Amino acid sequence: MGNLTATRPPQPWTAPTASDPVTATLRLPGSKSMTARALVLSALAAGPSTLARPLRARDTELMAAGLRAMGAHVSISDDESWLVRPHPLAGPAHVDVGLAGTVMRFVPPVAGLADGQVTFDGDPHARTRPLGPLVGALRSLGVRIDVTGTGSLPLTVLGTGGVTGGEVVIDASVSSQFVSALLLAAPRFDRGVVVRHVGPPVPSAPHLRMTVQMLRAAGAAADDSTPDVWTVEPGPLTGRGWEIEPDLSGAVPFFAAALVTGGEVTLAGWPHSSAQPLEQLRSLLHRMGGEVTLTTAGLTVRGTGVVHGLTADLSDVSELTPVLTALAMLADSPSVFTGVAHIRGHETDRLAALAREFAALGADITEMPDGLEIRPRPLRGGMFGTYHDHRMAHAAAVTGLAVPGIEVDDVGCTSKTMPEFPALWSAMVTGK
Ligand SMILES: O=C(O)C1=C[C@@H](OP(=O)(O)O)[C@@H](O)[C@H](O)C1
Ligand SMILES: C=C(OP(=O)(O)O)C(=O)O
């Protein structure tokens, strides 16, 4: 992959309209979240690991580059798997986080275990994404961190080759990644960690369960049996073979196309048990008019061409808000989404961005402190701003299925998690 931080002159992309029901079987890239976790756990393990079918996109390439910068050996094997051979971590090193929440949260705790200085910075907007509570927690666990200004990026970790660890209280209501970040590195902390969340609810419970599940799969003693308390004992992590599942969230725009056009989309290679929030998605799509089934071909979503609005708390699956908002725009009834105040700290302030961009297309949409109200009505074509946010581009593409003339200002931002999105989408909708 070339310069991961190369600036790209945005090229407006016309989202294709669907003249017929879409029918497609897709092989999509691996889960961003699973790939990020497997890379971190593998870099901290006692022996080598392989990641089969990892996500190869900007976020995960930046994660691999950040770990390599500190000394981990991450290479590509013949079958496109990633091979990770751990090595003592050391500075000086620099980590470019891009706009990846997983990199800017999961790697600083790892840097605390390195021997030497590790600096972090990223895209301009990454400097506005929340990081302060994690910085405070790491300091209380014995990690020396220098930050400038707002407590976010750029920052410097002065690693000493070890982290004391122990008990820490944190308000993780702004991002579950603060908790996952502490837990993933904790087996290598001298005293492990006991994380106690105090504050409004932590979002993204399925991602927290994924963290605990993958820690256990790497041999860690992780306990999440007490609400808002997570305990990880100190101990070795074992290298292993990681089977990365297809990215469920990345499939949702394609599933949405089945609902909008009355078609059928199958995600091939879906496992029979998953660390990803399939049941939450199944329920949401069912309520919106879709049917989700697991067959030998994979995970199949069928639609009727009629989309229903719904009222839903999206806190478990907050990253789906942009695409579900696009679906709601095309529904036969109103929708109310709540429980996602924290997505103002995602790749962009998604609530403000969605309200602004859809209103510019003529939508009747109201921004609330923690969500959105949508009252569907006919939309007009126009430019749709993405704010470097891959899921804003996905939302525009879904809208374009039924609204001619949707121009996406920078579809290249989908390279964050799926570089092949424009080609896959066009092939699914237009056949070419
Ligand atoms: O741990 C992870 O891999 C993620 C957790 C969630 O973050 P938030 O809890 O900040 O929403 C999710 O939105 C993000 O896309 C990936
Ligand atoms: C919020 C997201 O990603 P991250 O926070 O990992 O950058 C996302 O992919 O929707």
TrEMBL record:
GO CC aspect terms: cytoplasm
Region: Disordered; residue ranges are 1-23
Has UniProt tagged this entry with the keyword Transferase?
A: yes
Catalyzed reactions: 3-phosphoshikimate + phosphoenolpyruvate = 5-O-(1-carboxyvinyl)-3-phosphoshikimate + phosphate
UniProt xrefs under InterPro entries: Enolpyruvate_Tfrase_dom, Enolpyruvate_Tfrase_sf, EPSP_synthase, EPSP_synthase_CS, RNA3'P_cycl/enolpyr_Trfase_a/b
Q: Which residues participate in 3-phosphoshikimate binding?
A: K32, S33, R37, S175, S176, Q177, S204, E319, H346
Q: Which residues form the Enolpyruvate transferase domain?
A: 18-422
* Keywords assigned: Amino-acid biosynthesis, Aromatic amino acid biosynthesis, Cytoplasm, Transferase
In the record, biological process GO terms are: amino acid biosynthetic process; aromatic amino acid family biosynthetic process; chorismate biosynthetic process
Which Pfam families does this entry report, sorted A to Z? EPSP_synthase
List of residues binding phosphoenolpyruvate: K32, G101, R129, Q177, R350, R391, K416
Q: Name one GO molecular function term.
A: 3-phosphoshikimate 1-carboxyvinyltransferase activity
Composition bias, kind Polar residues: at what positions? 1-22
Entry keyword annotation includes Cytoplasm: yes
Name where it's found. Answer: Cytoplasm
- E.C. designation(s): 2.5.1.19
Top-level taxon? Bacteria
Chief location of this protein within or outside the cell: cytoplasm
Would you identify the family this protein belongs to, as annotated?
A: Belongs to the EPSP synthase family.
Q: Subunit details for this protein?
A: Monomer.
The task this protein performs is described as: Catalyzes the transfer of the enolpyruvyl moiety of phosphoenolpyruvate (PEP) to the 5-hydroxyl of shikimate-3-phosphate (S3P) to produce enolpyruvyl shikimate-3-phosphate and inorganic phosphate.
* Name of protein: 3-phosphoshikimate 1-carboxyvinyltransferase
Q: Which organism is it from?
A: Micromonospora lupini str. Lupac 08
Q: Which gene encodes it?
A: aroA
